[in-house]
Specification:
The protein has three helices and four strands. It is of the alpha+beta class. The chain has a four-stranded antiparallel sheet with strand order 2-3-1-4.
């Protein structure tokens, strides 16, 4: 198992819509994420800065590296792009975080 943590950035005024879209996450997208080895996925929001903090766990045999080419993942990114900072492909700009402490 591996842990993955990252930040992303929302545009001002879209916090409620971002939450709504995730509350209504497409079942087929959730299935794809699970099939790729993602589990125990959390996204937190710092309302003062519009910064999102994401964390998920990965199974040892994960296939997360294949997600960026999957049509459903691209469709989700296109759907979310108006709400957040993205790369030209509409993939959210993610800044990976380095672990510095753990208490298990």
């Amino acid at each position: 198992m591996h842990n993955h943590a990252f930040t992303m950035k929302l545009y001002p005024g879209v916090q409620a819509e971002y939450k709504k879209r995730h509350d209504e996450i497409w079942p087929e997208l959730e299935a794809l994420l699970r099939q790729s080895g993602i589990f125990d996925y959390w996204i937190f929001l710092d309302e003062a800065s519009n910064t999102l903090f994401g964390h998920y766990k990965l199974k040892d045999n994960h296939t997360v590296d294949q997600l960026p080419t999957h049509p459903l993942m691209k469709k989700w990114w296109d759907y979310m792009a108006p709400l957040m900072e993205t790369e030209p492909s509409n993939k959210p700009v993610q800044i990976d975080l380095k672990p510095v402490f753990s208490m298990v």
